[in-house]
Amino acid sequence: MCVVEGALGAALVGSTLFSGKGADGSYYKHQQGVLEERARNEEEQAVRQADQIRRKGQVHQGGTRALLAAQGVRVDQGSALDLLLNDEALFEDQAQEALYQGKERAWNYRTQAYGQSLRYQPQEFDYLGTVKKVGSLLGKVGAYAGS
Cβ distance 61 to 87 under 8 Å? Predict the structure, then answer.
């Protein structure tokens, strides 16, 4: 009894894997949704990280201003102003880099999601279990090659 149930279970799992996780492609639709959610999370995380970098820059600027003012240096002119502007530019560059990297990771997830969307297109199988579209595609390629 156990062998029969095991064989039946294996046959069901094998047929599900072979046919593309079900006739309606719900597995691939689910995977697509998961990947889209990951993409949104990556973008949101990148924005939060960029904001955090900017806040860190503002705190650093405040500390630098206080240090310079305590030493009697004017911060609105000369090399002190240059120092503050360079620091501000540095932190903004870091924030923009964080945004770029987050968008790149999100794009990678969206590309994977698009691939999943292509996988849940309904497919027809012939009596041998091969996809009919592959045969018709090869037939079309042969027709174009022969002409």
Answer: yes
